[in-house]
Each structure stands twice: as C-alpha cells, then as structure tokens.
C-alpha cells in the first residue's frame, strides 16, 4: 500500500552541469533529500569545483557584511553582474525563483505577453499553438527558440540533486514521519521544476527511471509553456496574491489569465493522468497546496475508489476575496473530490466552508461540506517542525563556524534577524517602516541594534523591490554612524547553515507577514534559542498576528499587527527591555505550544483523519447502505423480550411541516401503527421531533402511552406521563436569543414568504414557503453559515434541514435525551410500557434474566434528516458496546448517513411497523 505524496515540485531535480555543481537551499546534507552514497560522493567531487558567486547587497551596506557572507554564498546570479554562458552552457530561466545557468532552456515566455495567443500559429482543430523547430518545421519547441544555440542535452551528463524549489516544511515532515516509522511506503510525485522540452525522450525516460528506482519519486512531465503558464503566471500572479489578500491588476491581463488558467488545468491533468496510471487499489494519495487545487476531483473522476487527501499549506482567504477570482467555482469544485480537506488553521477552514456555502450554495457545518451523498470533513492540521533533525543540523561544523563568525562580527550588538519572501505578503516593507519608526522613537538603541533582513527569493514585483531598497537606503543613510550600520538587507537567500547560525545568535526574530499560511521559520528560531548550540538566549519572537503560527501561539506577548508601525516599534523596544526571566518565561510558553504541533504529529494526525474520513465515507455511501430486510427484522422482533422504538416524526413518519400548517396531526393509519406497537407490553415507543411539546402532542393526538422528545431533545415526556421535563434551564438561551433573533429577522425581511418561529429553547427560520426558493436556499445557507461562523463560545449551532434553519443549544440533542430515556428504562426495574401494559415476563429479584427484562434487547431507530444522524450514531454505539444485542437503524431518503439500512421501493416506516405488529408472515423484502 503506497502513499503518494503529491506536490508541484519533487524534492529532487536534475543538474546538467558537467564541470561543477551548485548546492541549493535544500542541500543534500540538510534536513532534506537523503541522497545515496554514490550520488553524495559524486556531488562532493563536483562541489570542489564550485565557484563562489557574488551577492546582492543593501544599498549602503558595508563591505564587512559582504566579506562575511560572500565566500559562502549560494551560486545565484547577481542582477548587476550577468553570467555569460560558456560554449557548453545554455542560459535559462528557472521556474520563478532564481536564475540558473546550467539547465535546458525554457521554451516559455515569462510572463506570457498579452499577444501570446495571437502571435502563435494555431492548429485550427485543437486551437493549440503550433510549435516550430529551428528549421521552421513543426515540433514540440517554441518559435521563440529559433536561432538560439541548441544543445543535445541527452548527450550531456546529468546528476540528481536536491531541488531548490518546493515546500521545505512538507519535505521535512514527510522525512520525519518516515524516520518515526509512520510512513513505510511512500512515493513523491511532482515535476522536476526545470524546463524539459529540449530533453530527448530517452533522457526523460532514464531520468524518470532513475528517480523512481533510487529516489522513490514519480516524475510528472509537462511542457515548458504549460509549466510556465501554470506556475509563473496562474500560481504566482493570480492565486498566491489572492490567497494572501492582494488582488492585483498588474502585471495581470485578461488574456494572461485565460491562457494561464488553461495551463493550470493542463498541469493538474498531467498529475491526474500520471497518478491514474500508477494507482493500485489500497494506495493512498495526498495532494499538497495551491498549485494542485483541481487535482482531487480530476483524480476522483479517474479513480472513484481511491483514498484522496488534500492539504493546503498557504492561507485561505475570506470568501469576499476568493469570489474575485474568475475561476472560483472550478477551483472549489476541484477540491471537493477529496475525502478530507486540511488547512493550517481553524480560520482558513472557516473561510473555505463559508466560500463553499456562498459560492457553490452547498450545505456546510463546522464538520465540513455536506454533499448530497457524503460529508467531506474540513479540519485544521497545523504543521510543525522536525526538531530532532534540526538539532542534528544545528550541530554541524558549518553552523558552529558561522555562529562564531557572526558572534564576533556583531559582538556587543542587539541582533534582530528576519527571513521572508520579497513579495507583498512577506511584509518586508512594513517591517522596515516599523524599524525606521523604532529607530526614530527610541534613539537609545540606535547605536547598538542591527536588523539583518534576508529576502529569500527574488522579487516578482520590481516596484516593491525598489520601494524596499529606497527605505533601506534611507534607514542606513539617516541612522548609520562611522562605526555602526543598523540595517543589512540581503536581497538573496543565504545557505540554511548560515540562517541557522543567525537564528542561534539573534536576540529577536521578527516576522511581519501580512498573511502567511503558517511560518515555520519562527518555530525554528525558538528551537535555535535553547542553547544546544551557541548561547542560550531565550530570544524573543515578534510575530505577525496574520500568520498561521499566531493561531497556535495565541496568548503570546509579542504578537503584532504589521500594519501598525507604532505598535511594532513599541514591541521591538519591549522585547529589548525584557529581563532574562521574562524572556525565559516567554520562550517556555512558545516552546510548549510548539511541541504540541510537530512535523511528525502533523503527518500522523492528518493520515489518521484521512483514513477515518475515507472509511466513514465508504460507510456513508447510500449505495453501500443495505436495504432493510423486513424478514430479518421481524425475526429479531419476535425473538426479543423488551423493545425500544425511537421514531422521528418530521421527514420520517410525517412530512416536514412549517408552523403555517394547520393540520399537524399524523394521519390515522400512522397513528394506528403506533397504537398497535403500544398494544404489545414489550414495546416502548418514543417519537422525536423538532416541534414544540404542544405541536408534538397535537400531532400524536390521543395515542396514549407514547413517549415524546420535543424540540430536538430539549423536552422529554416519558410514556404514560402527562408532564413534560425540560432537560435544559432557561438561562441556556438568555445570552444568545436576542442576537440570533436579530440576525434571523434580517434574513426574514429579505426572503419573501419566510418566517421566524420562536420556541422555548430554539429559534427557527422557516423558508419552506418562501416565494423564491432559489434565493431562500441561498439565504438559509448564508444564515446557517454566519451563525456557525460567529457563535464564538455560545453553546449553540445552526442546523439546516429541509425548509428550515434551526438555532438550538448544543448541550442537548435528540440522542442525549434518548440516552436519558434509555438509562431510565434500564434502571427503573419497571417493565411496563406506559400504556397500562406490563411485560408478561415478571422480574424475579436475583434472576439472571431480570436485566434483560428491563434493558431493551431490541432497538429500532428511524429517522430521515441530518439531525437524526446523532441518533443513529448513539444506537450504533449501543450495539458496538454490546449493550443492546439487536439494533436496527433505518434512514429514509438517499443521503450520507450513519444508519445501517434504508427503505426501498416506496416502503414507509409505517409499513415496517405494520408488518412487525402483524401476525401474518412478513412481506418478502
Ligand atoms: O513558492 P511556491 O512554489 O509558490 O510555494 C509557496 C510556499 O510553499 C511553502 O510554504 C507554505 O507551506 C509552509 C509549510 O506548510 C508554510 O509555513 C507557509 O506559510 C506556506 O506558504 C514553502 O515552504 C515556501 O517556501 C513557498 O514559498
Ligand atoms: O534550506 C532549507 C530551507 C528551508 N528549510 C525548511 O523549510 C521549511 C519552510 O521554509 P520556508 O522558507 O518556506 O519558511 P516558512 O514559510 O514555512 O516559514 C522550514 O521548516 C525550514 O527548516 C530547510 O529545511 N532547508
């Protein structure tokens, strides 16, 4: 049984550099990418030939910093110092992050020009661009390529190396889970993250084979232009900004969007096709992140029985932002093929659910998305770091060497460190403005504080980059002295070893992201401050409240609103002023919280929840719920000595009535069926309902001896009794009733024909009789969604049933009241059924059968709507725990259910009851 871990980038890629090899961010000896000895040896050999590359520095930065970082700098190009390709090198653009010089050339235009569609010849039949080779013949290459030097890369040597791009947090988590023995058989699925059009077919094949055999990796090949449109454009300039609350017009263009959307679809399809060819029954598929939002449904279409999970690493925006995306419905629908959808935080789950409710008009609840035939759970799984591996890495000689260097260089200084993407959401601009405010407002620190800001990727937005440079220049020119410079801005990533050293030495780590899925670097900073390597500083984490991390570190003293520069400045000062004891207390708080969310526990809890969701879905599938065998039910009925019936009225015995209905009594033949049941002293019957006690009594007319459970469990009337018991007290509704009434009235005023009904413990918005049903359904789902989303700590929930939204207390349900009735029945020692009839089997004290005579040995639960599911689960539990030997749960209608059986061929619950009490042989099922 294989787990396919699917993300856009494989942890490995290919290097065609014959004379030297660069080490990327995800260095082979780092936490990631365990390479085998053969490859490692080869890399070591090649590394010796590595050339140091220059570094892009802050305007105004001193050469000291350059001296410190330059020799170890990752081999990326300098914008002002272009690399000139050698005769055997082909200059290429990499996908999005940094330039690379040793890879096959990209065939794509980055970003695509508006004229991309018109400029290309099109195949009239397929509407696809016709690509021509250098000789002008149709080929798989791009016309832009004409005239460029072409290298037959199949003849060039290649090595496998750790990829620079991709999700480090995910890779670490999967590797940690493998080490912990949670994952035995896993296969990475992804692209190489480099242009592959110009590779010969046999080169691709041998790369794919090598990666599969030696690196547990399944390669997905897509054309360069598809990848470019998908990643550089749709992912990076449409989805990423939107998911981080930046709706940008520039550099977008309608044509870009349409074109790149098609490429986004195609890349998702390529993943689906590759996986569909490989998947075997029992294999599991775990899809990751915003690059592959369409994949779950594409997979479901190809593999209806597969176990498919999806986890979103980035933030998910509010529905108000998401709805701006032109492809919003398709993106949401793309996810709904998954068995489980995970997000980093509760907040993102809520946003997603609300978006599904508002844009797709789906029924949602705190549990997930309710599709007609199943529930897709939507849950938070905050990712964490792999501390044991980090600790190994921190103790490497390279990190220790760097710690010494940085400590010496910054002796006597207060070091603030940060590493973020140079994009809008990364918040570098806001951080610099806050830092400038800090230097202005707190002059006493000016000569001793240094902020080292690493920008971990090249900016995709030149304007932003220019603004950041300008602010940096201003800070350094205003606040530098002959011997001190307060800001170092490295507009390029540093090696991970350098970063670990910086985090070990720093006094403060500052994250001011305007929005961020999680932010694991903050966690790593906390870990690096424990004194395992370098000083035990218990340094302070200043953290934006708009990160996922803030939600698991809530209550932390140094959370900031990155837009509030004054507050950020104050918090920097506050952090610098903390006493050692306060620092240690804060640090302890953070490390305690963090250790509840580790990389391994993330993986483990997600995969367990995925199995549960998959199994639950299989059991909920109406196609798999067996139809009721009336013969076998009758057989059990006849063999039992004490029977309990819990029957729902609305939607099961009766139709759904609105308060406007004037004939609430059950039809006579239905009442007769209940009377017949009650005429047998072995039978105890409860009718459950969302109706009020009064309405329920009216609907049961003069049936004596029937037990009643009204208002979804808030009221109980035991069989044979005239008085009602309330299972809640009035104070339960006092706090929320007024506010909920107002919200309901708002919706009622905007939905013609709807009404609000007040009950003692609940409020119902009835839209069954609304004039415009389409609008009413939308309003109802919005209302339920708003209430469930903003109920805070109130013990209430909004339940959407056919024609109504009921807001009711959560501390009582039909099931909890049925349990009260059941327990009383078991412990009363009374074997009468409330109808003046006594069970024929007298109880003899001490007789081993006495228990079975008061405790039911037969339980039948019949329901029809979603709020009856709690009753089914309760009954199933009694059965599993062996408390009741014969349990039958029956659902009416086709929907996701925990019930074991359903009724077929227009059979009604009344028909079933009639057969049971009829002495004639049961009808054939
Ligand atoms: O650069 P991309 O290919 O667009 O990918 C986006 C980022 O993905 C990863 O970050 C996301 O996952 C992290 C771990 O779950 C989470 O902490 C972060 O907030 C998410 O954005 C990756 O680690 C980043 O380097 C990528 O930029
Ligand atoms: O060379 C590297 C760079 C990053 N990471 C890990 O990748 C994860 C995510 O890094 P990223 O820069 O995306 O930071 P985040 O957005 O999660 O803070 C972190 O746990 C890092 O330890 C790593 O192991 N090696």
From TrEMBL:
Starting at the broadest rank, the lineage of the source organism is: Eukaryota, Fungi, Dikarya, Ascomycota, Pezizomycotina
* Low complexity bias (residue ranges): 827-842
What is the protein's name according to its record?
Alpha,alpha-trehalose-phosphate synthase (UDP-forming)
Its keywords, alphabetically, are: Cytoplasm, Glycosyltransferase, Phosphoprotein, Transferase
Q: Which GO terms describe its molecular function?
A: alpha,alpha-trehalose-phosphate synthase (UDP-forming) activity; enzyme regulator activity; trehalose-phosphatase activity
Give the start-end ranges of region Disordered.
101-150, 826-849
Natural source organism: Rasamsonia emersonii (strain ATCC 16479 / CBS 393.64 / IMI 116815)
Residues of the signal peptide: none
Q: Name one GO cellular component term.
A: cytosol
Q: Where in the cell is it found?
A: Cytoplasm
């Amino acid at each position: 049984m294989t787990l396919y871990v699917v993300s856009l980038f494989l942890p490995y890629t290919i290097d065609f550099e014959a004379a030297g090899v660069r080490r990327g961010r995800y260095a082979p000896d780092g936490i990631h990418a365990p390479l085998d000895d053969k490859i490692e040896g080869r890399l070591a050999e090649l590394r010796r030939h590595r050339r140091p590359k220059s570094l892009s520095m802050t305007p105004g930065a001193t050469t000291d910093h350059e001296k410190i970082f330059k020799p170890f700098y990752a081999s990326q190009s300098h914008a002002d110092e272009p690399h000139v390709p050698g005769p055997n090198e082909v200059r290429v653009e990499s996908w999005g992050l940094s330039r690379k010089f040793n890879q096959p050339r990209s065939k794509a235009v980055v970003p695509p020009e508006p004229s991309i569609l018109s400029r290309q010849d099109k195949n009239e039949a397929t509407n696809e661009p016709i690509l021509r080779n250098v000789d002008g013949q149709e080929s798989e290459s791009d016309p832009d390529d004409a005239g460029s030097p072409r290298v037959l890369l199949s003849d060039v040597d290649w090595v496998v190396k750790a990829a620079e791009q991709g999700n480090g947090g995910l890779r670490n988590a999967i590797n940690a889970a493998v080490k912990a023995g949670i994952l035995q058989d896993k296969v990475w699925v992804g692209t190489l993250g480099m242009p592959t059009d110009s590779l010969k077919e046999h080169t691709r094949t041998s790369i794919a084979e090598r990666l599969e055999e030696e690196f547990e990796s399944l390669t997905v090949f897509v054309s360069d232009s598809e990848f470019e449109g998908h990643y550089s454009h749709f992912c990076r300039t449409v989805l990423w900004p939107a998911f981080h609350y930046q709706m940008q017009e520039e550099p977008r263009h309608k044509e870009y969007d349409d074109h790149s959307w098609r490429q986004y679809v195609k890349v998702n399809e390529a993943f689906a096709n590759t996986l569909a060819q490989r998947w075997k029954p029992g294999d599991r598929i775990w899809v990751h992140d915003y690059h592959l939002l369409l994949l779950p449904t594409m997979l479901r279409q190809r593999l209806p029985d597969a176990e498919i999970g999806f986890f979103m690493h980035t933030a998910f925006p509010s529905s108000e932002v998401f709805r701006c995306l032109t492809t919003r419905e398709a993106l949401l629908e793309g996810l709904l093929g998954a068995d489980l959808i995970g997000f980093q935080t509760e907040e993102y789950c809520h946003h997603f659910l609300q978006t599904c409710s508002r844009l797709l008009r789906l029924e949602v609840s705190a549990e997930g998305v309710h599709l007609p035939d199943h529930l897709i759970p939507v849950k938070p799984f905050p990712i964490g770091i792999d501390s044991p591996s980090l600790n190994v890495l921190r103790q490497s000689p390279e990190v220790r060497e760097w710690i010494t260097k940085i400590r010496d260089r910054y002796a006597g200084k207060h070091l603030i460190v940060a590493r973020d993407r140079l994009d809008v959401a990364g918040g570098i601009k806001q951080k610099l403005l806050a830092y400038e405010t800090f230097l202005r407002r707190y002059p006493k620190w000016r000569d001793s504080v240094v902020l080292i800001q690493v920008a971990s990727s090249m900016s995709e937005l030149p304007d932003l980059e220019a603004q950041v440079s300008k602010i940096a220049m201003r800070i350094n020119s205003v606040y530098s002295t002959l011997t001190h410079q307060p800001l170092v801005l490295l507009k390029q990533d540093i090696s991970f070893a350098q970063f670990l050293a910086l985090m070990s030495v720093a006094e403060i780590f500052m994250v001011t992201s305007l929005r961020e899925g999680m932010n694991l670097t903050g966690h790593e900073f906390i870990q690096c401050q424990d004194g395992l390597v370098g000083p035990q500083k218990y340094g302070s984490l200043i953290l934006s409240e708009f990160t996922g991390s803030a939600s698991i570190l809530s209550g932390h003293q140094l959370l900031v609103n990155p837009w509030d520069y004054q507050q950020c400045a104050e918090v920097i000062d506050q952090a610098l002023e903390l006493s050692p004891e306060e620092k240690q207390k804060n640090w302890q708080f953070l490390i305690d919280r963090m250790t509840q969310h580790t990389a391994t526990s993330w993986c483990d809890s997600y995969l367990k929840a995925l199995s549960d969701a998959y199994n639950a879905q299989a059991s909920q599938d109406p196609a798999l719920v067996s139809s009721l065998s009336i013969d076998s039910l009758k057989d059990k009925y006849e063999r039992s000595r004490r029977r309990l019936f819990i029957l729902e009225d609305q939607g099961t015995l009766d139709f759904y009535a609105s308060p406007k209905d004037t004939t609430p009594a059950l039809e006579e033949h239905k009442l007769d069926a209940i009377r017949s049941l009650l005429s047998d002293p072995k039978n105890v019957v409860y009718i459950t309902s969302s109706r009020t006690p009064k309405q329920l009594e009216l609907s049961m007319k003069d049936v004596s001896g029937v037990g009643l459970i009204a208002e979804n469990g808030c009221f109980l009337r035991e069989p044979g009794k005239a008085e009602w018991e309330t299972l809640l007290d009035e104070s339960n509704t006092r706090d929320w009733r007024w506010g909920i009434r107002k919200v309901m009235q708002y919706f009622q005023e905007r939905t013609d024909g709807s009404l609000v009904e007040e009950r003692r413990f609940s409020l119902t918005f009835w839209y069954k009789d609304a004039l415009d049903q389409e609008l009413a359904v939308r309003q109802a789902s919005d209302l339920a969604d708003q209430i469930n989303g903003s109920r805070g700590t109130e013990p209430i929930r909004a339940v959407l049933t056919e024609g109504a939204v009921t807001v009711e207390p959560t501390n009582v349900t039909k099931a909890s009241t049925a349990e009260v009735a059941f327990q009383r029945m078991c412990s009363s020692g009374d074997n009468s059924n409330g109808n003046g009839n006594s069970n024929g089997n007298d109880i003899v004290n001490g007789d081993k059968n006495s228990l079975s005579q008061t405790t039911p040995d037969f339980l039948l639960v019949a329901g029809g709507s979603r709020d009856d599911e709690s009753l089914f689960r309760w009954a199933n539990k009694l059965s599993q725990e062996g408390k009741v030997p014969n349990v039958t749960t029956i659902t009416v209608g086709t929907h996701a259910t925990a019930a074991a059986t359903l009724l077929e061929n227009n059979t009604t619950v009344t028909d079933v009851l009639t057969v049971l009490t009829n002495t004639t042989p049961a009808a054939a099922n």
